[in-house]
Amino acid sequence: MSRQANRAGDPRKVNGELFTLTYGALVAQLIKDYENDEQVNKQLDKMGYNMGVRLIEDFLARANMGRCNDFRETADVIAKVAFKMYLGLTPVVSNWSAAGDEFSLLLESNPLTEFVELPSGHNNLNYSNLMCGVLRGALEMVQMDVDVRFVQDTLKGDNITEIRLKFNKRLEDAVPVGED
Amino acid sequence: MTIFTFYLFDRNGTCLYYAEWNRKKQLTMSKDEEFKLMYGMLFSIKSFASRLSPTDMKEGFLNFTTSKYKLHFFETPSGLKLILNTDLSVGNMKDVLQQIFSSIYVEYVVKNPLCQLDQPITSELFKYKLDEYVKSLSAFQTSKTAS
Amino acid sequence: MSSFGKQKPSNLEKPIGKGKPEVNIATFALLFSEIVQYCQNRVHTVPELQTKLSELGQHVGSHMLDVIFLREKGFKREIKLLSMLIFIKSTFWKIVFGKEADKLEQANDDDKTYYIIEKEPLVNKFISVPKDKGSLNCAAFTAGMLEAVLNGANFPAKVTVHWHKGTTFMIKFDESVITRDKTVDSR
Question: What is the CATH number of domain A16-114+125-165?
């Protein structure tokens, strides 16, 4: 074997700039391809959803945990386990609704928006909308129908980035054809 | 010891993948029909088993045994179902199924942009890795010397 | 939006620092996977798809260049062709992909052409190309990055991707680069 001075980094990790810039390239492409910000937001959400559907499988494979007992446990797992695992940060869970069916994730930094200035003339663009889709898709796969949206965004001048999750209903398993 | 067949179903009951190794007797019905019956049976066993259970079950139905074979079942919280049929001498295969899910399905299907998750798997890499893994298992290997 | 009055340091004013924390390879792989599928739905042929991926890669590469040169070399750019290629093969590759590229070679019959060979590029790690798309190589994205980095550093070149010893990136430099390099040599 040759010398190990140039030992490779952790094979399970990727350079954060590569990730941020790749996302930036995608958003730039979508802005080119679509007519308005709403359509871009929608497309980002859709792509996020597709990612979430896949990401949850990776999560279940790695975290090796069963189903959560309630939405509070889900919130904790999202913030402390999932965000940590996939983006290397831990948002704060806060602003619970009285009924316990809504909460916010507060992010001090957002790896999707590093180096990013919102392009001018795109004030309705939710640059990080992908994240909403990811959460929605991932939760749907574990039978939770959840609405996800940005309520604050540092890119738009807010002091913090806040993602709001609202639990709608538990989804039932699909019944096979020919059964009731 | 022997491993006969492997099935992978998605949450909607689509058979994503089927493989067989030492299945000697050929079926009288079509593969599609077999998949449908298999999924329907698992669905029923699962729901009935949990209804019979004296307390709330976390894992539920794990396997059943007939006089000729043993069916091992593993379901992820996302509703993916993995089934392995083996002969009677094979012990608990939960870890094996979990391993197939996490190291083969997730790595080579979930992360492959050219694989649709709700369509049968055509990835050669998945096929190869699964085959290689199953053949490396002690439950599989001893079958040659024993038979 | 309502919040333009607030004075917050913008992201552009933040220090670039030692590099961002890393993210999970799965996060990147799935993002890339979505990008490939998005592009695939908007084109008809494999070459078109590769061009699209290359364009996106160029976007990434052109931004990456500044970040990396600034941090690694304190604005000092490479002047010599060979040192630039070695910089890409080693430093650049290591920062971006976590390892050096496997090989750097020069074409036998052409002084404008170089090859960087990578057995398993990061973006291809999870991709098993179905038989009907035999020639598709998603590392066209990486080729685009390389092209933008080279162009940005004033080494205009075309970079294409080929299935050979894993993946081979073929770098064809502009005549001007070779001529310039010879004059730098003779100084």
Answer: 3.30.1380.20
